[in-house]
Design brief:
With 190 residues, the chain is mostly helical. The chain has a two-stranded antiparallel ribbon. Helices cover 65% and strands 4% of the residues. Helix 1 packs across helix 7 and helix 3 runs antiparallel to helix 7.
């Protein structure tokens, strides 16, 4: 839980730190017409990047790894995150969730990464379509009334939760997770 919170906070703070660290900052950009959504997109892009990097870092032979039989394997978590992207983002889009069942139908690293990329592409569409005005439109999220932005925020929170699982699995395989890898983070901060 602490790792997930640390990643979530990093996604919130890192873009500001990177902007202040520039030696020759660009001219002031005009204020965003949708600052709420712009910030939410920034967080989403960070979460997306570390999840994809995690999936890529784990070797194929470890996709079936699970520390105990009571939990999902690494690959199943990747599949679950892909499935969840469709569930949350379809809510924000006001669409019926596409049925993919990635967690139960994909097992290879290549198939799971491709499915995760496709799920993120679907969510990219939800983020691109959202404005600060449409963010406040109400929808049903897990049986409750919620603003559409709530679905996208819940998606990022859910993704960070499972990134924490992936971090543990990577560490158990002596692999440095993306958020602790300076080279990966340098790439993400570009």
């Amino acid at each position: 839980m602490k790792a997930a919170l640390r990643i979530f906070l990093f996604c919130l703070v890192a873009p500001s730190v990177a902007a202040f660290a520039q030696t020759n900052p660009p001219a002031a950009a005009p204020a965003s017409t949708n600052p709420l959504i712009a910030h939410n997109k920034l967080i989403y892009r960070g979460v997306k990047a570390i999840l994809l990097a995690s999936a890529q870092k784990m070797p194929e032979e470890s996709y079936g790894f699970k520390p105990t039989e009571a939990v999902r394997s690494f690959g199943q978590i990747v599949g679950h995150v892909a499935d969840s992207q469709y569930a949350f983002c379809s809510t924000a889009l006001g669409e019926k969730a596409p049925a993919h069942d990635v967690e139960k139908t994909k097992t290879s690293k290549a198939d799971l990464i491709a499915a995760l990329q496709n799920a993120f592409a679907y969510c990219d569409r939800a983020h691109a379509a959202m404005t600060d005005a449409s963010a406040t439109e109400m929808t049903k999220l897990m049986g409750r009334d919620a603003p559409k932005l709530g679905a996208l925020t819940a998606n990022s929170l859910h993704s960070v939760e499972h990134y924490g699982n992936l971090v543990t699995y990577l560490r158990m395989k002596n692999i440095v997770p993306p958020s602790s890898d300076p080279e990966v983070m340098k790439e993400l901060m570009k």
